[in-house]
Design a protein that fits this description.
The structure holds 2 protein chains of 2 kinds.
Chain A lengths: L1 H10 L4 H10 L11 H27 L16 H7 L2 H31 L5 H11 L6 H12 L4 H8 L13 H29 L3 H9 L4 H12 L1 H16 L3 H6 L13 H9 L6 H31 L1
Helix pairs in contact in A: 3-15, 5-9, 5-12, 5-14, 6-9, 7-9, 9-12, 10-11, 12-15, 14-15
Chain B lengths: L1 H12 L1 H42 L21 H9 L2 H32 L5 H12 L3 H14 L6 H5 L6 H12 L3 H9 L4 H9 L4 H17 L2 H6 L8 H6 L1 H4 L4 H31 L6
Helix pairs in contact in B: 2-15, 3-15, 4-8, 4-11, 5-8, 9-10, 11-15
Classes of the chains: A mainly alpha, B mainly alpha.
């Protein structure tokens, strides 16, 4: 394979020309390097992404300035949809719930998987088994996980039964009906599902830390905790930022867990609605106000953009200092 | 570099004094380590085991016994028969397989083709295409989902499985992943083929694509799992029971069997078996995919 190549390279200064000439005698090479060939390669991707991401995005921008409904394209109403948002109590609730989700879930997602990753390092069989088990919830659908935890957290679910048997509580705890308990239960389910995913990302980062750093630390008399603080943490700080970013975005977009735990209602009187649930409610069905829903989803876009911007700024500043 | 020079001589010299302290500390740390891991194991695997136990409990079992009983005293498979009888779970599984199949094929073909061109072919507008894909990657699906539905409806694809598959048929993330994979192939390989008279299609198919099989597998697996588990979009697109995918169909379990946790448990177990088996078979690819940067958004 290599030898004729080298010979050819010496014989003919390579452009597409000699190849084309060779192709005329040989079979099926006549289409070599037509100007539009690369465009044929990228065409399917451009069509799908353009039609189903770029166009809908522009359409959402336009929709948000109209009073469109599911049944008819509406008229231009300026920023009225956005003004309406600020007096809509459900929007305030959804914004509060989704923000609370970010504030509570993200610290757990940044720290717990790191601890897990440190604990399950190593090439032994038992550690491989733990890693696999911890990752398992990641491949499961949020709907199934939600149903599992609905069973567990219900009034007569395992958790309440266990706590009552242990006499920790006298009455069942309303995990699935109380406003904030339900919110925390959903957050717990989110963390439960996500631990393994971030653990694997941390494992990759840990593998990149130079082992001799640990040796040096232990020679200096550092124990498990000190070498974690002085070697592990600095070694994974970039990964921590990445996971902070990924988990913030995911947390603000939460949908399935809350939807399933509330059986699609968003809690009593919609008190547990999240932003995505609000978009889904306002934007689907025959009575849908697609213009208003478009405005809500644009607010989501702006908030998510802000989360990304804040994280990047903080990370930059951190790196400089 | 500095760390090696720091570490190596020091550990040689200080061995006798240095090893004793860690060795004394190791058992305590190891005990704690296994305690935490054991607790996490119970927390993560326990709910699934309990669900399995629930699904096997018969009418003779007291579901609310104290202390709760893990092993059914009246084990039965009738819950599974009941669920499959009253809810077309297998039909939903079939629908999900169709959607996931379309999405997997679409991403393998579309992302590989585009990834190759973006990494390996020089053409005007390449940067524009890259920019388009990069920005598309940052558009959260919630922002466009209503417009996507309006579009799919105008194409008369609402309430069809093709409509469910359409938005993720080729994702920007997968194209960029494939582009990075193709960019890592050494130039010489392709040059040799060019000199032998191979055109772009032949170089793509015979020379480059075989080099990135691993990444193609990762793209396929993550596309499959993503499509299999997606809930919001199929919930919006599908209205007819016969078209439901597994997630949308399962969501209805709770409404149907509100009073019988055994049946809900049986339904979730039926739903879990395929994806858990899939994961068990292809485990190493899941981990490799995440490590190589194949992060899902």
């Amino acid at each position: 394979m290599a030898q004729p190549t080298v010979k050819d390279r010496v014989a003919a200064p390579v452009t597409s020309r000699p190849a084309r000439r060779a192709g005329r005698d040989g079979p099926a090479s006549s289409t070599h390097s037509l100007w539009f060939t690369p465009w044929l390669f990228v065409a399917p991707a451009i069509v799908v992404v353009g039609l189903l991401v770029v166009y809908p995005f522009i359409n959402t921008l336009v929709l948000s300035l109209t009073d469109s409904t599911m049944l008819q394209r509406g008229a231009f109403i300026g920023l009225a949809n956005f003004e309406r948002l600020f007096s809509d109590p459900r929007f305030a609730t959804a914004m509060l719930n989704s923000s609370a989700y970010v504030l509570c879930v993200v610290p757990l997602m940044v720290l717990l998987p790191l601890v897990l990753a440190v604990l399950v390092r190593g090439n032994t069989r038992i550690m491989g088994f733990f890693r696999t088990t911890f990752y398992l919830p990641v491949v499961m659908s949020a709907v199934v996980v939600g149903l599992v935890w609905t069973n567990l957290l219900g009034k007569q679910g395992l958790v309440n039964e266990l706590l009552q048997w242990l006499q920790v509580i006298a009455e069942p705890v309303p995990f699935l009906t109380d406003r904030w308990l339900l919110q925390f239960s959903a957050m717990f389910v989110t963390v439960w599902m996500g631990l393994g995913y971030y653990m694997v990302i941390y494992l990759a980062a840990l593998a990149n830390i130079d082992d001799t750093l640990y040796d040096a630390a232990s020679v200096d008399g550092a124990g498990v905790v000190r070498s974690f603080l002085n070697v592990t943490l600095p070694g994974v700080s970039n990964t921590m930022f990445l996971i902070g970013l990924l988990s913030s975005i995911a947390a603000f977009r939460v949908f399935s867990e809350v939807y399933v735990l509330t059986n699609g209602t968003g809690g009593i009187g919609g008190q547990n609605l999240t932003m995505t649930m609000l978009v889904q409610r306002e934007g689907t069905g025959l009575q849908a106000q697609t213009g208003y829903a478009g405005a809500i989803s644009l607010v989501m876009f702006v908030v998510l953009g802000a989360i990304i911007a804040v994280q990047l700024i903080v990370q930059n500043r951190q790196e400089k200092s | 570099m500095t760390s090696t020079t720091l570490g190596a001589p020091a550990s040689d010299g200080a061995r006798p004094a240095g090893t004793r302290r860690p060795r004394r500390r190791v058992p305590a740390a190891a005990v704690l380590q296994y305690l935490v891991l054991g607790a996490m194991f119970v927390l993560l695997a326990g709910p699934l085991v309990w669900q399995l136990s629930l699904s096997l409990k018969g009418p003779g079992d007291d579901l609310y016994a104290r202390p709760p009983r893990l092993f059914p005293s009246d084990p039965t498979l009738t819950n599974f028969v009941d669920v499959l009888d009253r809810v077309p779970v297998l039909h939903y599984v079939g629908n999900s397989l169709v959607v996931a199949g379309i999405v997997v094929i679409g991403n393998i073909v579309g992302a590989t083709l585009a990834g190759y061109a973006l990494a390996r072919l020089r053409f005007r507008g390449r940067k524009v295409v890259l920019g388009l894909l990069l920005s598309a990657m940052f558009v959260p699906v919630e922002t466009v989902i209503i417009s996507q539905f309006l579009l799919v409806r105008s194409m008369q694809l609402q309430n069809t499985l093709l409509g469910v598959a359409l938005p993720t048929l080729i994702t920007a993330l997968n194209v960029l992943l494939m582009r990075n994979a193709f960019a890592a192939i050494p130039k010489e390989l392709e040059e040799a083929a060019t000199i032998d008279g191979a055109n772009a299609w032949q170089r793509f198919l015979r020379v480059c694509a075989p080099q990135v099989k691993g990444v193609i597998t990762v793209v396929a697996i993550f596309s499959f799992v993503g499509a299999w588990n997606d809930f919001l979009w199929p919930l919006i697109v599908l209205s007819d029971d016969s078209q439901f995918t597994l997630t949308v169909g399962l969501n209805r379990l709770r409404g149907t069997f509100y009073d019988d946790p055994r049946l809900i448990a049986a339904g979730t177990i039926v739903a879990l078996v395929p994806i858990v088996a899939f994961f068990a078979l292809l485990q190493r690819y899941f981990f490799r995919g995440l490590e190589s940067g194949g992060l899902k958004g």
